[in-house]
Design brief:
The protein has 158 residues and is mainly β. 7% of the residues lie in helices and 44% in strands. The chain has one domain (19-157): Immunoglobulin-like (Sandwich). Strand 4 (59-60) and strand 5 form a beta hairpin.
Length: 158
């Protein structure tokens, strides 16, 4: 079905955004960067970018499991494809895989892109043994016709 829509746009002479280069423009006309920023959510539910070595809180859920909240701010035109999050510690994957189909996900629009906040990365076992350890959060975005984007951040699990 996507190929039909792309063919229709080409035949009618409408511009088709290139997922590799077209990130759009800001309201002032300046070009948007094409980047993905890993983040978390603050107590006031605002997006907060994860810097290298940032602390991420392990939360015990109501059903006894453990998770960390993860968010993404995307400066990218296509709001399609998949997001895949992974949490590692000591080189081993410690979170259950989290894969999100963006065509069926709620995305908050922002200038030049979108945000997705508060996705839980759930530990495959108890998160308690990982408190105080370092870890790495990885985001992978894949969309038809675009080179996959991978963003990694080292974090401290507390």
């Amino acid at each position: 079905m996507k190929w039909f829509a792309a063919l229709w746009l080409l035949l009618c002479g409408c511009p088709v955004p290139d997922p590799e280069t077209d990130a759009g423009t800001f309201p002032d006309g300046g070009p948007c960067p094409r980047e993905f920023v890993l983040g978390t959510e603050t107590d006031t539910q605002a997006f907060e970018a994860l810097t290298e070595g940032a602390e991420v809180t392990i939360i015990r859920g109501f059903q006894g499991g453990h998770h960390v909240w993860i968010s993404v701010r995307a400066f990218a035109k296509p709001q399609t494809g998949t997001l895949t999050y992974t949490l590692r510690s000591g080189g081993a994957v410690v979170s259950a895989p989290l894969r999100i189909d963006l065509s069926q996900a709620f995305l908050d629009p922002i200038a030049c892109g979108w945000e997705r906040r508060s996705d839980p990365l759930t530990f495959e076992s108890s998160g308690e043994p990982f408190r105080g350890m370092s870890g790495e959060v990885e985001l992978r975005w894949e969309s038809f016709g675009a080179t996959p984007v991978v963003v990694k951040r080292s974090v401290q699990l507390r």
